[in-house]
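Practice problem 4.
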């Protein structure tokens, strides 16, 4: 028995596809998805100014995402963006990854991953993570890293299924 054909496709947003991609559309999509889930918030969102307190999202979340997408798509940064599209062309998932090098090894970091609620459970998140892993490996990376909000159990299950394992816990205190 063969698996059914996926009802979406994944493409990297680079070159010509970057020129056709509107950072505002990507920003609206990701902001809408994560804003509905405070469990998504982790220390990365705090560092990037997307959450002021680890509990709520910044009022200007969409604008911050749009600025980040503009930089990623047009300023030749180390950020890479892939999008999943349904066969009708509608955006159904996005992943943002950054390239790092600690002097010993090259690695990629999954900064953000969002999948439209209506298509979750159909392999979009897994396909986006596989696309990142494949690109990272082709780029000479030895490791793929991501971090997630402590209570984001659905995402954690996906990450575990994709071969990730927990490596640390992050603590914070208010001064």
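Answer key:
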């Amino acid at each position: 028995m063969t698996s059914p054909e996926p009802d979406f496709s994944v493409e990297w947003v680079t070159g010509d596809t970057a020129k056709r991609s509107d950072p505002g559309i990507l920003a609206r999509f990701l902001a809408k998805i994560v804003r509905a889930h405070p469990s998504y918030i982790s220390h990365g969102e705090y560092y990037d100014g997307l959450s002021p307190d680890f509990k709520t999202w910044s009022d200007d979340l969409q604008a911050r995402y749009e600025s980040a997408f503009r930089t990623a798509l047009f300023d030749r940064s180390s950020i890479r963006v892939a999008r999943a599209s349904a066969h009708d062309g509608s955006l159904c998932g996005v992943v943002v990854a950054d390239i790092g090098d600690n002097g010993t090894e090259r690695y990629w970091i999954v900064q953000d991953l969002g999948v439209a609620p209506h298509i979750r459970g159909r392999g979009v998140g897994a396909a986006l993570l596989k696309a990142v892993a494949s690109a990272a490996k082709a780029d000479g990376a030895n490791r793929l890293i991501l971090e997630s909000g402590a209570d984001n159990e659905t995402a954690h299950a996906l990450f575990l299924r994709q071969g990730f394992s927990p490596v640390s816990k992050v603590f914070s205190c208010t001064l």
